[in-house]
Amino acid sequence: MKNIKRIIAFLFIVLSILAVGSCNNDDEIVRTKVEAGNSGENGNGNSGSGSNTGQAEGNEGEITLYKVDGDNITKIKDYKVSGKDLEYQKDTDKHNEIWELAKKIIPLNQRKKMSEFLIYNGEVTGSAGFVVEIKSDLSDWQMGIAINYAYEGGFNAGGELAYTIIHEFGHVLTLNDTQLDAAITQANCKNYFPGEGCARDNSYINELHSKYWNDIWSEYEDAKKDEASHAKFYEKYKDRYVTQYASTNPGEDIAEVFATFATTKDKPSGSTIAEKKMLLMYDRSELVEFRNHIRRNLGLKRAKGNVASFELPEPGSWKQANTIGNPYKTKCRRH
């Protein structure tokens, strides 16, 4: 009996240690992350084998997951797919073409915040792109691009894909660990709390919220409860938003402001609150540098009288500009 009691006590101690250890990992992974290097791929993301053995099945149209390493992407895994998705999976030239555009848009110093790049079929979620944090401290992110929408009407038709990449990275830019403190709960947050963490004092989103959302916040909180009320809220305050989609919540607002700031040729006068939001970005030298990078790499910066070599949607005309998203969605930014 004594031996049995000793064994039980020993097992209890071991289980206690394991339980404590599992709850104190500062680099907690938000979702299951497959390790790189197990698929026999070369540096261009091309498969060294056509086998689907041991592949996991995605539930949101996942096709191929890549690791981002500077200018290159390396395949982490292929998901188990069939039919049209298998065609998409095998067409790695298209994967690389999408990545090349993303690389043109996102400078290397910013790309360090994004370690994964997912190619997926957007028909499942109805989305063209998304970003989601990989680590709970918001230091590492994944971007997903829907290959079917990327080639709808031809690659980057109308500049929609380029705009989507700019908008989506706008979330990474404004929600990463330099902007939010994920360790501070909403109850203890003195600034704006978008859901992923507490906005730091000098963060882009905290400035936007304090200057141009705070005075109408209680009205917004009531309006977001149903679509009809939210639509009325937008109509009342439409001069505050660069698009209707921007009125979804401050997180979507700042991503839309960033995308409009980057793609609009001329600096606005500030005659509306929407334009004043764009001017906030002109006051940040690092954001102006980011804008110049995008416009230079996409051939948007041309001498007067020359035609730009790259097409983008007119401000406010991208496919989801005149819609309102889910105001409650925070953890996973999907569009």
What does this structure look like?
- The protein is α+β, with helices and mostly antiparallel strands and about 325 residues long.
- It has two domains: about 130 residues, no CATH class; about 140 residues, no CATH class.
- The chain is built from twelve helices and eight strands.
- The strands form two sheets. It has a six-stranded mixed sheet with strand order 2-1-3-5-4-8.
- A hairpin with a 2-residue loop joins strand 1 and strand 2.
- The chain is globular, with a radius of gyration of 22 Å.
- About 40% of the residues are buried.
- About 15% of the residues have low confidence.
Strand order of the largest sheet: 2-1-3-5-4-8
Number of strands: 8
Order of helices and strands: HEEHHHEEEHHEEHHHHHHE
Tell me about the biggest sheet? 6 strands, mixed
For the terminal residues, how far apart are their CA atoms?
62 Å
Percentage of residues assigned to helices: 25-40%
Structurally, the number of domains stands at 2
Radius of gyration: 22 Å
The gross shape turns out to be globular
> Spans of 5+ residues with little confidence (pLDDT < 50)?
11-53, 302-309
Number of helices: 12
User: Per DSSP, what share of the residues sits in E-state strands of 2 or more residues?
Assistant: 5-15%
SSE blueprint:
Blueprint: H1 2-22, E1 62-69, E2 72-78, H2 83-90, H3 92-105, H4 108-111, E3 114-120, E4 129-133, E5 141-146, H5 147-150, H6 160-175, E6 180-181, E7 198-199, H7 204-212, H8 217-223, H9 227-236, H10 250-263, H11 273-282, H12 285-297, E8 332-334
Helix pairs in contact: 6-10, 7-11, 8-9, 10-11
